[in-house]
Specification:
The complex is a heterodimer of chains A (328) and B (227). With 328 residues, chain A is mainly alpha-helical. Chain A folds into 2 domains: 183 residues, no CATH class; 108 residues, Alpha-Beta Plaits, CATH 3.30.70.3040. Helix content of chain A is 75%, strand content 6%. Chain A has 12 helices and 3 strands. The longest helix of chain A is centred in the middle third of the chain and has 40 residues. Chain B has 227 residues and is α/β, with parallel strands linked by helices. In chain B, 32% of the residues lie in helices and 24% in strands. In chain B, the strands form 2 sheets. Chain B has a 6-stranded mixed beta sheet, with helices on both faces. Chain B has a 4-stranded antiparallel beta sheet with strand order 2-1-4-5, with helices on one face. The mean pLDDT of chain B is 90. Classes of the chains: A mainly alpha (328), B alpha/beta (227). At the A-B interface, helix 1 and helix 9 of A face helix 2 and helix 3 of B.
Chain lengths: 328, 227
C-alpha cells in the first residue's frame, strides 16, 4: 500500500518536473522569438550593451597592460647611493654586504669614480659640450652603490638604512646634488608609475560605471517599450491563465540574448583591435604581450565572463522593468 | 456553478458603485445572456468572475472555489478553469491558428504530444479545418473569433465567458459564433454571454439577466431584450 503511494508520489513529481522543464523551454522559445520580432529595439539594446562590454574589456586590458608595463619598468629601476669621490670598492664593501642583507634588496653593485666617468663618456659620446664639461669640471664624480629591489615601490627599508647606517654616513658624498636618490636611471620614480596606474584604474572604473548605468537604462527602457507594445498580448496571457514566470520569462530571456550576443561581438572587436594595435603599443613601450597571451589562451573563459556580465546587466534591468510595468 | 452573494464593486469612494449588492446563481450547463447598456456593470461583473477585480463587499464562489480564500498565486489556476472570449479576439498576430490555440495548453505545461492530439479536435469543433497554418490577419473576423473560442475551450473549461463576442462581426458571422457557443454549451460547458444584439437575445430564448446602473433589474428564464 505504502509502496504504491510512494510510486504514485514519484510519478507525480516526475510529471511536475517534466512540466517545469517544458515550460522553461517554451519560455526560452518565446524569448528568442520576441528577440527576432522587435528588430530595431533589439539592435539598439544589443549595440548599447556591446559598447558597455567593450568599455569593460578595454578597462581590463588597459589595467593589465599598465600593470605589466609598470612591472617591466620597475625591474629596470635601480636606486643609487653616492659615495665620496675616490671611494674604493673595498671601502664600500661593508655597506654593500649590509645592504645585501635587507629583505627587499635583490642585488647591489659598485661603480667607482673612474667607471662612472667612463660610463658617462660612453653615454654622451655624441655630446661634445657634456664631454668637455666632464674634463673641465672641478668637482669629481662620486663613487656609486647601485641597489636593485624586489618590490620597486617599497623603499622604506632602504631609506631607513641610509639614515641610520654609521659606516655609510662616513663614506657618503657631501657634495650638493649627490644625496642618495631613489630614482631609477630613466628618471621615473615608481610613485609616478603607481599614480598613473591608479589614475587609469579610476578612469576605467568611472567609465565602466557610467556605461553600465547607461546600458541599464537603455535596456530597462527597451523592455518597458516591449511591454507597452505587447500589453494586449500580456493581458490575454494573464486572462487565459499564464503565471508570472511564463509572462516575465520571455522578457528575461530576451535580455540575456542581448547580453550574450553583445559579449561575443565586444570580445571579437576588442581582441581584433588589440592584435592590430599590439605592434604600435609595443613601439610606445607598452608591455602588451602578456595580456594578449592571456586573452587568446583563455578566450573561451573571457567570452564566458563577458557573457555573464552582459547577462547580469540584461537580467537586472529587465527584472526591474517587468516588476515595475508588468502588473500581473 | 457561479454564485454571487450581495456583491458590490466601487472603483472610487466618491462615485456610484459599478455593481450594487447583486446576487446571482448560475447552474452548471446553463446558457446565460447578460444584457445592459454601456456602463451598466456587465464588464465589471465579468472582471469579478475572472478575478481581474476584487469585489468591495460580498461573496463570490465559482466552480466550488471561494474567491475570499483564493490566494494570488492560484489565480492563474482559476483562470485555466474559465474560458474567456473577447470582442477584439486578442489573438497573437505573429502565431498561426494552431499556435494560438496551442498557446493555452503550453502555458498549462501540457506536453507537445498532448497538444498535437488535442488542438486538431478543437479546430474541427469550431470548423476551421485547413486553416491551421494561417495567421490571424489572413482570416475573416468570424474566423478569428472562432480561433479565440477554440483557444478558450481547448482546456475544456467548466465555464465559458464570452464578452460581446459578436460586437465586431456582421450578422451572418455573429450567428455562426452564437451557434458555436450553443454547441459548446450542449457539450456541458456553462456559457455566460454578454451582448447588445437584440436579435440574438430574442431569438435564443435563453435565460436573460438585465443589468442597469449596477443592479440586476430583470432575470428571466427564457427572456428577451429589454431597453
Amino acid at each position: 500500500m505504502s509502496r504504491n503511494k510512494d510510486t504514485a508520489r514519484a510519478l507525480i513529481q516526475q510529471k511536475r518536473r517534466r512540466r517545469q522543464w517544458l515550460t522553461f523551454l517554451r519560455v526560452c522559445r518565446y524569448g528568442l522569438s520576441n528577440f527576432r520580432r522587435n528588430a530595431w529595439l533589439t539592435v539598439a539594446a544589443t549595440l548599447v550593451m556591446t559598447i558597455t562590454l567593450l568599455i569593460i574589456f578595454a578597462t581590463f586590458v588597459a589595467q593589465q597592460a599598465l600593470r605589466d608595463t609598470a612591472s617591466t619598468i620597475g625591474k629596470e629601476l635601480d636606486r643609487s647611493i653616492y659615495l665620496k669621490s675616490g671611494t674604493t670598492e673595498a671601502q664600500a664593501k661593508p655597506v654593500m654586504v649590509a645592504l645585501q642583507r635587507l629583505s627587499n634588496v635583490e642585488r647591489v653593485s659598485f661603480i667607482s669614480t673612474d667607471d662612472g666617468k667612463n660610463n658617462f663618456a660612453r653615454d654622451n659620446k655624441n655630446d661634445d659640450a657634456r664631454l668637455r664639461a666632464l674634463t673641465e669640471a672641478s668637482n669629481r664624480l662620486p663613487a656609486t652603490i647601485r641597489i636593485y629591489l624586489y618590490d620597486t615601490s617599497d623603499t622604506s627599508e632602504l631609506v631607513e638604512f641610509v639614515n641610520t647606517n654609521t659606516t655609510l654616513k662616513k663614506l657618503i658624498s657631501t657634495q650638493p646634488g649627490q644625496t642618495p636618490t631613489f630614482m631609477g636611471e630613466r628618471g621615473l620614480p615608481t610613485d609616478v608609475i603607481a599614480s598613473w596606474t591608479q589614475t587609469a584604474q579610476k578612469i576605467g572604473v568611472a567609465a565602466t560605471a557610467l556605461f553600465v548605468a547607461v546600458s541599464f537604462l537603455i535596456i530597462f527602457n527597451t523592455i518597458r517599450m516591449a511591454i507597452f507594445n505587447r500589453r494586449d498580448e500580456i493581458e490575454m496571457m494573464k486572462l487565459i491563465g499564464a503565471n508570472k514566470e511564463f509572462i516575465r520569462g520571455p522578457f528575461l530571456i530576451e535580455a540575456i540574448v542581448y547580453g550574450v550576443i553583445a559579449a561575443v561581438i565586444a570580445t571579437g572587436i576588442g581582441l581584433v583591435t588589440l592584435l592590430l594595435m599590439s605592434e604600435r603599443l609595443q613601439a610606445w613601450g607598452v608591455t602588451i604581450q602578456p595580456t594578449i597571451q592571456f586573452l587568446t589562451g583563455y578566450l573561451w573563459l573571457v567570452v564566458l565572463v563577458m557573457m555573464m556580465i552582459g547577462s547580469v546587466i540584461g537580467v537586472v534591468s529587465s527584472l526591474l522593468a517587468t516588476r515595475r510595468y508588468l502588473k500581473i | 456553478m457561479i454564485l454571487l452573494d450581495r456583491v458590490s464593486k466601487k472603483y472610487d469612494k466618491d462615485t456610484k458603485p459599478a455593481l450594487d449588492r447583486i446576487s446571482l446563481h448560475v447552474e452548471p450547463n446553463e446558457f446565460v445572456i447578460i444584457v445592459g447598456t454601456s456602463g451598466a456593470g456587465k464588464s465589471t461583473l465579468l472582471k469579478l468572475l475572472t478575478r481581474e477585480e476584487k469585489p468591495t463587499t460580498g461573496k463570490i464562489v465559482v466552480g466550488g472555489i471561494d474567491y475570499d480564500t483564493l490566494k494570488d498565486k492560484h489565480i492563474p489556476l482559476l483562470r485555466r478553469k474559465i474560458g474567456v472570449v473577447f470582442q477584439d479576439f486578442k489573438l497573437l498576430p505573429q502565431r498561426t491558428v494552431f499556435e494560438n490555440i496551442a498557446f493555452a495548453l503550453e502555458i498549462a505545461g501540457m506536453s507537445n504530444r498532448e497538444i498535437r492530439n488535442t488542438v486538431p479536435k478543437v479546430i474541427e469543433l469550431v470548423g476551421l479545418q485547413g486553416k491551421e497554418k494561417q495567421f490571424p490577419h489572413q482570416l475573416s473576423g468570424g474566423e478569428q473569433q472562432r480561433v479565440a473560442i477554440a483557444r478558450a475551450v481547448v482546456r475544456q473549461p467548466k465555464i465559458l465567458i464570452a464578452d460581446e463576442p459578436t460586437g465586431n462581426l456582421d450578422p451572418k458571422h455573429s450567428w455562426d459564433i452564437v451557434r458555436l457557443l450553443e454547441k459548446i454549451n450542449r457539450y456541458g460547458t456553462t456559457v455566460l454571454l454578454t451582448t447588445h444584439n437584440v436579435e440574438i437575445v430574442n431569438r435564443l430564448k435563453r435565460r436573460v439577466i438585465t443589468i442597469d446602473h449596477g443592479k440586476i433589474t430583470h432575470d428571466q428564464a427564457r427572456g428577451s431584450y429589454r431597453q
